[in-house]
Give the backbone structure.
Amino acid sequence: MDPEAWADVGSAEELARRPLQQILAGRTRIALAFKDGQFSAISGVCNHVGGPLGEGTLDGDYVVCPWHYWKFHCRTGEGEPGYEEDRVPVHEVRVEDGRVFVRRAAATKRGRKPHEPHPLARPPRRADGPIRVLGLSTTTMTADHPRYSTSEDLLEHALRHAGAELGCDTRLIPIRTLRFRECEGFYSKSSRACTWPCSITQMDSSDQIEQVYEGVVHWADVIVVATPIRWGGASSLYYKMVERMNCIQNQETVANRHLLRDKVAGFIITGGQDNVQAVAGQMLGFFAEIGCQFPQFPYVAHTRGWSAEDMENNQRYVQDSLVLHEGAAELVRRCVDMAGVMIRSTLGEHALVRGGRKGHELDTRAQLVSVATDS
Ligand code: FES
């Protein structure tokens, strides 16, 4: 067996213990399957975004990618029925003297079935027109029995003001009206498994967080997020939403790609009990990480405080408060003014220096050299 052409990948007895594994034939990643007493080998690199096929599972004759579950036939490399053109290379396998050999050169070529890119994947470009203000309300309530919400009332007031007084286009998304899945942790498999648009959005056309992506990435200049305070934090719906927005931030980390430019965020936070500053801190941190700017005084808030439990009164106070409504209107004005500055300026055009950013490696070799020199 010519070692130039064939890689000895291990003992047949040991390799036969697992139905599927990721191995190396030299430097080539291979998904080695053992099924019905036979070894077979296909490329270990998925056609989608490079998932390690050999770390997946076998479903009948198909290798299932562990990242987003695309399937490839373990002997022909073809995609599942309907996607046969989407094929990964096949490698010949031989067993001799109890050793498994994989031919380094592939016997077939990789083929890609053209996939229509998801509409959200288009490059974000600001369309001409008035400043656009998106309101995201993260309070929740019984659908058939709506109730008054302090945070949503102030948000609606701010949007009315933006439309009527500032000439903006406005859109409100009550997040509770969307049906969408929780973030399922593709990022935890590999940062590259977290894709833009979110892998769930690409796989599941019924998932409606798409409306938030469309609004935040492609439509809005200003994003105003309203949340109630729940146990000292933002609402669980807020967290469910921002976890799904992690794919926007992750594009910065893994692809150095800014999906948000010249966008401004502001926040409305209301609750019966306190912790406004911690809630605001989280919101500011998250929206800063996805690339938003903030106006001066980027949030308005109201709470009754620790000793108050009379929520009926709290609702009435907010409902009747001219000061709070004026505060919400002025918040959106500051955001709109800031967005106007951003759109007219070149502030957002400079390349982002990566050092010190999340997921960016330090120049450790230089550090080591300098430490060695110092000592
Ligand atoms: S399904 Fe394989 S990388 Fe996405």
The pocket of FE2/S2 (inorganic) cluster is lined by residues 46, 48-51, 65, 67-70 (CB under 6 Å).
